[in-house]
Amino acid sequence: MTLYAAPLDDMRFAFYDLLGGDATLARLPGGEALGRELIDAVLNEAARFNEQVLAPLNQKGDAEGCHFDRDTASVRTPEGFREAYAQYVDGGWAGLTAPEAFGGQGLPHSIGALVKEMIDSANLAWGTYPLLSQGATDALLAHGEDWQREVFLKPIVEGRWTGTMCLTEPQAGSDLGLLKTRAEPGENGAYRLTGTKIFITAGEHDFTENIVHLVLARLPDAPAGSRGISMFIVPKFKVARDGAMGERNAVACGAIEHKMGLKGSATCVMNFDGAEGYLIGQPHKGLMAMFTMMNAARLAVGIQGLSLIERAMQNSFAYCRERLQMRALSGAAEPDKAADPIIVHPDVRRMLLTQRAFAEGGRALALYAALQSDIEERSEDAAERARAGEVLGFLIPICKALLTEAAVECTYHALQTYGGHGYIAEHGIEQFARDARITTLYEGTTGIQALDLLGRKVMQLQGAGLKHVLGDIAAFCQQHAEDETLGEFVGPLAVHAKTWGELTQEIGQRAQGNPDEIGAAAVDYLFYSGYIVLAWMWARTVAALPESSLDAEAQAGKRDTARFYFSRILPRTHAHRAAIQSGIDGMPAVR
Question: Model pTM?
Fold first, then answer.
């Protein structure tokens, strides 16, 4: 079984010392009582649950997978999964960040992000079952009617029901304008939905008494394309307006997918055959409700990537400290042994430090984004809320795409450090590599995130979030310009930030002549942006070390990793910049 110990020391460093998260929450309404003692108690209990309950089920769940009964259209999850969910609900975790008015604990999203990282590191497949309940909660809070929130939110928050997002169809992947699912008006304000949805995470399972599907469909008078999409609540068992649960609805799982990874997670084909549902929000405005869910889900998937980096890293570090092979080139590091541990070899150190740089830098980035979500939701200052929303909108595609692509890279490195032992199932490392691959695909591929970042957040919205981030980086660099201990980080960061702004303007000018310039530059621009944002997080990390609670050895390790990031990973920006500047001419038509 692979190792997992919740990285509480680094979580506390990132949240308290680096980002000042406790101080930020304390000044926001509802956060006055959120001191370190309470936050630490939540994190400690989450660590216990994840280390002792979920982590031991991870490799077993992958080996067993889910079981589909075609006769009953039911799914049985791997052994132990259902019992773990019962403990999760009993512990109050299902409603951790949900409003108290609906039975939740009302804790901030940033605390939820820390807990979610632990869940996904411990058992990512299991973590997909409650994942989309958060998106359903957000959509109902923002767009649902009062009776819908009362009837559907309370059991979701309690954990008695779970939620899904039913968007994708066989002929319509990311282009939702092509979807065909129909919604016909029925009796008593309800609708009848007919169509097929695919790739539905947790569309069917044995955890809860009901499953609430949020479904995109077209009304009879819907205009063509994405402007004609509406969103509906369609429960597995019918639910009346007074909350009474009735007979089985006409929605059923038709199959579960046979996948590369996440085998303990049920990915379902869902068939709607005149299923009864209720409209959420206004007719033909379903995309607005969908994006409310999608934004939360995209940040959550970025955290999934981070969680896999952390789990794989812990195991590869442990293995490389113990595995003996060859001698250090500079001479025997441990002459009393038959060979040296492979951690002494430079290329092994490269792979280990790459994992650490992305894990610890990525954690800071994800928490920074989650704090923006808390500010946007809780601040009493309208200008502060707007600014936080713009920064969050800008960072979400970076968090989602960069951290998941880094998960693919880092789980590959972890497997590589094991050599042939990494390729076989017994050690459990190959599972992380398989599980990581889907994170770059669902909730929008890396290419979709890149187009959202460059095409929408930068060009269409005139770079509001980018301007805030560049301004904050400039202020940080100016604040520490005379600090000799930070010179090796602040100087390069300032240069990169300046070039970032100039390169963005270049792309915008070229795109005026040919809109394809956006598509040609988008993915490279996302990586370029992400590497600079991570450099900012690492520079801030080093600046925070003297006043932190970390001991001298941990501080030295942080500074060494920051140096590695700046010398070995940040230079990747030069290749991405060159690719961007080659423009659409550097990407000829495929013949």
Answer: 0.97
